[in-house]
Amino acid sequence: MDGLGNSPEDRAYPIQRTTPNDLMALATEYAGSPMQVAAILILDRPVDLAAVRSVLAERITAVARFRQRLQRTPFGCGRPVWIDHADFSIDCHVVDHKCPAPGDEAALLKIAATAAVYPLPRDRPLWSITVVHGLSGERSALIFVIHHVLADGIGGLAALGLLVDGAPVLPSVSFPSPQPSARELLAEATLSRVHALRQWPAALRLMQGASAELRGGRIDHPTPCSLNQPTGPHRQLTVARAGLSALSLSAHTNHATINDILLTAVSGALAEALHHRGESAETFVFSVPVSGRLDKAAPALGNHVGAMLVEVSPLEDTRQRLAAVAEVTQARGHSLGRGASAVLLEPVFRLLAQVKAFRWFVDHQRVVTSFLTNLRGPSTPMTFLGAAVTDIIPVTQINGNVTISFAALSYSGTLAVTLIADPVHCPDLQLICGKLQSQLDLLSAADPTRRTR
Questions:
Q1: Structure confidence at residue 452 (pLDDT)
Q2: I want to staple 147 with a disulfide (CB 3.0 to 4.6 A). Which of 60, 76, 126, 215 is the partner?
């Protein structure tokens, strides 16, 4: 670290710090529930592990964060920074796994469920890829796992787009770059604090927008039911699918969005599942991520999301439920500062984590019934090592007392909706998936009122 400039302006390599959202992701994970997300890429042919490692070793240079690790800073020198991992080895991040017979989607999802919750080591870049061999039909798969501190969903998709065939070749950069000195860190942190003080009017407006986004008007507590129970460490996955063009037409016809369609379908499926359990619910509340990114195609990593709470009454028929959801989300879309709610959540969640109360808090919360994430993926088919990517399946996490959550991702004309559940407290996952598939099939029609729930 000797010989570097004494001010941030003198550095040839800018200091890259974690964001407050990143710190929240690190602080709020606990044993058995790491803040990791994943994407499963299914390929139409086998791929060789050595070839995968070789091509990724070249392509990851396009995303600097894939060769960086987190480094704590001295006291008073600001948030942790990202530094190049001098001992980086692609072999530590890309491994292979043989899929057990019959090599179907259920077997692949079982591998992915384990890979997504296996903690990524903190002393190296926070990502991994598992190459899965032995899928039926002479297929293979890549399970791409990243920590939420490395990227949110949109950032992860943008980064993934730089690793597949046809990605632009970026100029090589010096690796590893020098680490910043304590003096540089202190100078940069001081300048940032001064800048923040000068921006207090904008910060006040952001706080107002954060409150509006998170609150969005009066939100009733969801009806207590068996969907909210403290979860264990194990996860089970299953997937429902629908044609994107049909869903888009239905959404347009009903003055709604794909996200509105998903909220309508998921709430209907959960209501039917509760009925099967001998329960009922008058109100569900879903936490829906809201992106604060200005450029959704940019590969910049880190977290830029907040949360929006959406109340849904599953007692209404399909048409009424869709109309009610669309009305709520359209009104909420005009709140100040998309993704701003993180500025309120971050300090509260970090404080709870510091006093060892976060786990208790999420195990006993009565605000959210479930989580729904919806990402717009690539609209055209992709390839990797010449193999066609036939499907992309998203995987998110659940924690606390939310026993089931939903992650949707569109790819090449198909919307895949992954159900992620605790198999102990949600043993009827396949039933819920079947109900969700029926709801999606119904809502794929331009007039979803031809049948009710």
A1: 41
A2: 126
Cα–Cα–Cα angle for 108, 109, 114, rounded to 5 degrees: 105
Confidence band, pLDDT 50/70/90 cuts, at residue 219: low
Sheet hosting strand 81-84, strand order edge to edge: 16-17, 81-84, 68-71
3-state secondary structure of 398: coil
pLDDT of residue 383: 97
Sorted by sequence, the CB contacts under 8 Å of residue 276 that are 6+ apart come out as: 428, 431
Residue 30 amino acid letter: Y
The pLDDT of residue 1 is above 50:
no
Report how far residue 351's alpha carbon sits from residue 360's, in angstroms, rounded to the nearest whole number: 13
Beta carbons within 10 angstroms of residue 211's beta carbon: 17
- Residue linked to tokens 């939310």: 402
Q: 154 near 303, Cβ under 8 Å?
A: no
Higher pLDDT: 301 or 378? It is 378
The per-residue pLDDT of the chain, averaged, comes to 85
pLDDT of residue 336: 38
Distance of CA 401 to the CA centre of its chain: 18
Q: Please tell me the number of Cα atoms within 13 Å of 273 on its side-chain side.
A: 25
- How sure is the predictor about 23, in pLDDT bands with cuts at 50, 70 and 90? confident
- Residue 182 phi/psi, 5° resolution? -60, -35
Q: Is the pLDDT of residue 279 over 70?
A: yes
Measured CA angle at 307 (ends 404, 402), to 5 deg: 20
Tokens 């331009």 locate to 446
* Distance set, CA 338 to CA 210, 307, 391 (Å): 8, 9, 30
CB atoms within 10 A of CB 197: 9
Q: Would you call 416 helix, strand, or coil by DSSP?
A: strand
Distance from C-alpha of 426 to C-alpha of 78, rounded to nearest angstrom? 42
Side chain identity, residue 225: C
Q: What is the DSSP string of 173-242?
A: --SSPPPPPHHHHHHHHHHHHHHHHHTHHHHHHHHHHHHHHHH-S--PPPPP-TTB----S--EEEEEEE
